[in-house]
Design goal:
Elements: H1 2-7, H2 11-28, H3 32-51, H4 54-64, H5 75-87, H6 112-144, H7 149-173, H8 191-222
Helix pairs in contact: 2-3, 2-7, 5-6, 6-7, 7-8
């Protein structure tokens, strides 16, 4: 499955799914040696493919030296930093951002996080990060309290996809990682990604609901039964 996505030259999605798969393998108890070997082989394969694509190498070069490539490959990340800087702590006000006026490409999808920082300020961007942390912690707790092993692995896989995708998007927009082109879950424009994220949250709620019903049934079975003698 990863090879099919890799051949579409979508390195970001390939790395995201591979990382989520490794998390599930780790939780399932796979040998650390096997996980490490698989991860190294995957990183090597992605690197080999990236070296054969000039656009991907340009993104890597722009990440290493953003000032040199601020007019081409590093344009998005430089404009994103300008958006964060112009917003400051308070922000310019909702709808008053300037970078979305064709200065920052894909401001409504991949780079919507800098627009939040420009219009609503640092406080709102930190709130967004905090909410993602809450979702991740809640998802981990649901997975750990699942009623069976399948629920545990499914919950860990879903929360890994959501958490890693958010982390990569925020890292890209703040120039912490090279540009990958992944949307910000629940916030970026686009129906398919939103439906997929909501579907994952629905599965997490189903895992939680089944765990609650299981615990209630166990409590009912553990309760002593009182027998009233007939007179």
């Amino acid at each position: 499955m990863l090879a099919l996505i890799l051949f579409e030259v979508d390195l970001g999605t390939t790395a995201l799914l591979a990382a989520a798969a490794l998390v599930v393998m780790f939780v399932a108890g796979t040998s650390p040696i096997l996980i490490t070997g698989t991860a190294l082989a995957g990183v090597g394969g992605i690197f080999v493919v990236a070296t054969q694509i000039s656009q991907r190498m340009a993104r890597l070069a722009a990440f290493l030296d953003p000032q040199r490539f601020k007019e081409d490959a590093g344009l998005q990340q430089m404009q994103a930093l300008i958006a964060f800087g112009s917003g400051g702590i308070e922000g310019l006000g909702l709808g008053n951002g300037r970078q979305k006026m064709l200065y920052l490409p894909y401001a409504h999808t991949d780079f919507i996080f800098p627009i939040i920082g420009e219009e609503l300020g640092l406080r709102m961007t930190l709130l967004v990060v905090f909410l993602f942390v809450v979702v991740i912690v809640a998802g981990i707790m649901i997975a750990l309290h699942a009623k069976d092993r399948f629920g545990l692995l499914l919950g860990c896989g879903i929360i890994s996809l959501l958490g890693l995708q958010a982390a990569v998007n925020i890292g890209v927009t703040t120039s912490l990682v090279p540009n990958k082109g992944l949307p910000l879950p629940f916030i970026s424009y686009g129906g398919s990604n939103l439906v997929a994220c909501l579907f994952g949250i629905g599965l997490l709620l189903s895992i939680y609901r089944q765990a609650v019903f299981e615990s209630r049934n166990q409590k009912r079975q553990a309760m002593p039964v009182r027998i009233t003698p007939r007179i």
